[in-house]
Amino acid sequence: MKFNHKQRKIMALILVPLSFTFVCYITLYLLISPAIEPLMSIYSLISSDYAPTLNDENSTDLYANKLVASDIIKASQIIQPTYGDLFGKLSIDSVNIRVNLYYGDGREQLRNGVGLFGGSFLPGFNRTILIAGHSIPYFEPLGDIKIGDIIKVSTHYGDFEYKITDTKITDANDSSNYDLEQKEQEKLILYTCYPFEIIGYKSQRLFVYADKISGPTILEEQ
């Protein structure tokens, strides 16, 4: 199909601006996407209508046949979660926190709840439990907790309570804020980004420390 001079001129007037606009949009996107992606991620957390809870249908089996009849549970009796599994819930009644607890602290887990750092330990093993969570929408209320408040963790094998003993605000890269090697007492540590009012990268972390006061003990078999 051949176009006459007038038709070619009209097509040029249409296609050249469209092509120029398309190239400009692509260039602009490539330049600003690294900067806006963190902001959009935060916005999606704030604006999301979905707030997962442990009442979801696919979590109804989580607490079936809970092994609460004994203070001592053999390690072989519990279901060891794998990375990404929903294995419990965490709640702090004093500041109205109730959130899903996942094994692993990757992007997907922290989008849907709070996550147990894989290098730490499950509740009941008399070791350090390190749990991370985004300040928005889950852990911002930690700014209002008080020494002596109780943190509750429920799993399929038992319910645990921890009394808050201390809080600390520190540099995000300071690993001295927790000891994963200690075996003297079961300790629960929560942490989140700080300050809460800043949107985007935050260079500090708020740590909340608590000691176990109730719940079964897991006996590791030889």
TrEMBL record:
One of its GO terms (molecular function) is hydrolase activity. Keywords: Hydrolase, Membrane, Transmembrane, Transmembrane helix. The active site is at 134 (proton donor/acceptor), 193 (acyl-thioester intermediate). The keyword Nucleotide-binding does not apply. The keyword Nucleotide-binding does not apply. NCBIfam families: sortase_fam. This is Sortase A. It comes from Thomasclavelia cocleata. The lineage of its organism: Bacteria, Bacillati, Bacillota, Erysipelotrichia, Erysipelotrichales.
